[in-house]
Amino acid sequence: MFEVWNKKTIERLSNVKKQQWFDVLNYRLEEDRDISLDDSELITKQKEIKDDYIKYLESCPYQDNFFKYYVFIEDDIIVSVCRINMINDRYILEGLQTHKDYFHKGYAMKLINHMMYDLKKEGITTIYSEVRTWNNVSHAFHHKLGFIQYGKENQNYLFQLDVNTSIRRQLFDTWASGYHHSVISSKKLGTYPFAGYSELKYRIFELITQYQKTSILDMGVGDGKMIMPLYQLGYTITGIDLSLNMIELAKSNMPNASFIHGEFHEAISLLNQCYDAIVFSYAIHHLTYHDQIDLLLSLNQYLHEEGMIIIGDVSTKTQHEMELLREKYIDIWDDEEYYPIESIYQQSELIKHYVISYVKINDVAAIFQFTKKLGIES
Ligand SMILES: C[S@@+](CC[C@H](N)C(=O)[O-])C[C@H]1O[C@@H](n2cnc3c(N)ncnc32)[C@H](O)[C@@H]1O
To answer: Which of 258, 226, 222 is nearest to 242 (CA)?
Structure first.
C-alpha cells in the first residue's frame, strides 16, 4: 500500500506511524553521529537520536520547503519512505530509505514508481537528487530508476529524473511480456498503432541489406523482434532501451547483441563507435518534437559518412493529416505520443545535416530515411 503524507497528514499522524517511520530510518544512526555501540550511555543517546528524528518529522508541516513524504506499507508495516523538498524552485528527492529487514525486495522501486504518478498529478516534470560520490549503491539505484547524472558539486553527484520518462519506463516494464501480443492483434486488425508493422519490418530489412550496412544501433529496441531478422543474418546489433524488462526479452531473442539500458540521450553519450544504420521503430514518438530533432542532430556524430537513420512509425506528411488520423482513431489514440510528421522535420535544422526521404506505408505508418549531408560539421 502506498501513502502520501502532506503537511496536514503529518499533523495528524498516529504515534504508531511515527514509530514505524523512525524504525525505517533507524539504521546505523549511531555510526552517523560517531557513537560507539559500546558507549556506556548508548541507550540514552539512542533515545536522543529518536527524539531528534520525531521532532524533525513533526516540524515538516511548518517548513516552507517541505513538500510531501511518500510511504510504502506492507502488511501494515512501513517498509520504505522518502520525501520531496522544494529548494530554489527545484523538487529534491531526499531521505529515501528502506527498513533494514526489507532490503533487496524492490520496495524502494515500488515507492518511487508510485510517487511518480503523484508528482505527475501535481504537474511536476523533473525531480533532482544528490548522492555522495562514494555511495556506489545509491548511484546504481539512481541509474536503475532512470536518473541522469548532470554534474558534480563538492562531494556529491547531481542527478535529475524526468517524471514522464520514469512513468514510461514503468509502463514498458509492465507491458514487456504482453507487448508482442499487442503488436500482433493491432496489426491483424489493421488498425492504429501497429497497422503496417510487418511492412515496416520488411522495409527496414530491405533498406539495410540493400546497402550492406553491417553495424546497427536500434534505438528503443523493445523485445528485439523488429531487428531480429538482421541479427539472424549476422549483423552487429546494439540495442538501447529504457525498460530493463524489454532489454531482457531482447537479450533472450538476440543473445550476442550488445545492450545499453537507459534513456536515449544519456545512453548515446556512452557510445564509442559509429554505426552504418540507426533505427527507430515505434520509439521516437515518445519524445517531444523538439527532443526528437535534438536527438536526431546528436546522432549525426555516431553515423558513418555513408550511414543512414531509419524511422518507422505512425506518421503523416503534415500536422493536418495527423489531426485527421487522430480523429479516425480517437477512441484509442494516445495523446502523450508525438508521432513523426514529415513537414516538422523538413522545416527544422535537420535539413542542414540530412537528406530526408519519406515513404507512406498505409494511412497509419510511414518510413523515413535520413542520409548524411557530407562536408557538414555536426
Ligand atoms: C513501442 S516500443 C517499440 C519496440 C521495438 N522497436 C518495436 O518496433 O517493436 C518502444 C520502446 O522504446 C523504449 N523507449 C521509449 N522511450 C524511450 C527513451 N526515452 N529512451 C530509451 N528507450 C525508450 C520503450 O521502453 C520501448 O521498449
So the answer is: 222
Ligand 1 pocket, residue 83 CB under 6 Å: no
Ligand 1 centroid to Cα of residue 199, in Å, is: 19
Tell me, what's the pLDDT at 326? Answer: 95
CB distance 162 to ligand 1 below 6 Å: no
Report phi then psi at 59, rounded to 5: -85, -15
Average pLDDT over residues 38-46: 83
Q: Is the CB of 286 under 6 A from ligand 1?
A: yes
Q: What is the pLDDT of residues 89-124, one digit of tens each?
A: 999 999 999 999 988 888 998 999 899 999 999 999
Confidence of residue 266 (pLDDT cuts 50, 70, 90): confident
Stated pTM of the model: 0.81
What residue owns the CA closest to ligand 1's atom 4?
A: 222
- Which residue minimizes the CA distance to atom 10 of ligand 1? 283
224, 239 contact by CB (below 8 A): yes
Ligand 1 within 6 A of CB of 226: yes
Ordered structural domains, the chain, with CATH: 2-124 (3.40.630.30), 178-372 (3.40.50.150)
User: Is the distance from CB of 231 to CB of 254 less than 8 angstroms?
Assistant: yes
Residue 283 Cβ < 6 Å to ligand 1: yes
339 in ligand 1 pocket by Cβ < 6 Å?
A: no
Find, among 253, 247, 217, 262, the residue nearest to 235 by Cα. 217
Instruction: Answer whether residue 378 shows pLDDT above 60.
Output: no
Cis amide leading into 193 (omega within 30): yes
| Nearest C-alpha neighbor of 335 from the set 294, 368, 296, 286 | 286
pLDDT at 39 over 80: no
HEC-encoded secondary structure of 151-188: EEECCEEEEEEEHHHHHHHHHHHHHHHHHHHHHHHHHH
Mean pLDDT to the nearest integer, 335-360: 96
Instruction: Name the residue at shortest CA distance from atom 13 of ligand 1.
Output: 220
Pocket test for ligand 1, best of 165, 199, 280, 282 (most atoms within 8 A of CB): 282
Does ligand 1 lie within 6 Å of residue 79's CB atom?
no
Tens digits of residue pLDDT in 297-308:
999 999 999 999
pLDDT-based confidence at residue 288 (cuts at 50, 70, 90): very high
